[in-house]
Amino acid sequence: MPPLNQRPNLTKKYAEALYRDQLPGLLSQLADRARVASITASSAIEGVVVKDPARASRILAGTAKTLRTRSEQELAGYRDAQDYLFQGTWQPLNTGLLLHLHRLLFAHTAAEGGQFKTEDNLVVDRSPAGDITVRFRRVTAADTPYYVAELTERYKPSRNRPTTTTRRCWNPPKAGTTTRPTLGPG
User: Fold this and answer.
1) DSSP three-state, residue 79
2) Contacts with 53 (C-beta within 8 Å, 6 or more apart), sequence order
3) Exposure check for the chain: N or C terminus, fewer CB within 10 A?
4) What pTM does this model have?
5) CA separation for the pair 42, 142 (Å, rounded)
């Protein structure tokens, strides 16, 4: 009897059946790898890094029995938030959704999530000599709810517009005024 690759009709049917049967498993594996890569990369931007890739994969799969470090806890929170978003039942974007995602992000840590910050904070660099340079001033704690509401409102109409890029710049308030800064055309 000739080998399978020399029997054209059987080979083609066998190959089609093999791919058809394996495709769901392969797509599932690919989706899992993409999920791990996405969560790992997103969390790394925030400085949340689990150095052992196998351990990170176990955390993201939900099979790690304990979360040993703050980074592992936050990685699990990223997983939970992303899984929630991919369920597809979260729309529309609003303040409540963002606070819920924040709660999920911090659910595995000692910190309490799901609420706006209560204290102002700065993004700074510290030199080896101990000097501090302010790199970025974040929105004040008092103004955060206002800006979150503003941004979610601005996001809604943008979803219905054609995909063109409009440049926006930050317009800080003028010295001595009490008005809030605005986002305006730049």
Assistant:
1) helix
2) none
3) N
4) 0.65
5) 27
Residues in the chain: 186
Residues of the chain with pLDDT under 50: 164-170, 185-186
**pLDDT tens digit string along 30-42?**
888 888 888 888 8
Look up residue 104 and give its amino acid: L
Residue 37 is encoded by which pair of tokens? Answer: 């890569």
- The structural domains of the chain, with segments of one domain joined by +, span 1-115, 119-160
Which amino acid belongs to residue 105?
L
DSSP 8-state secondary structure symbol assigned to residue 132:
E
Task: Please give the DSSP secondary-structure letter assigned to residue 41.
Answer: H
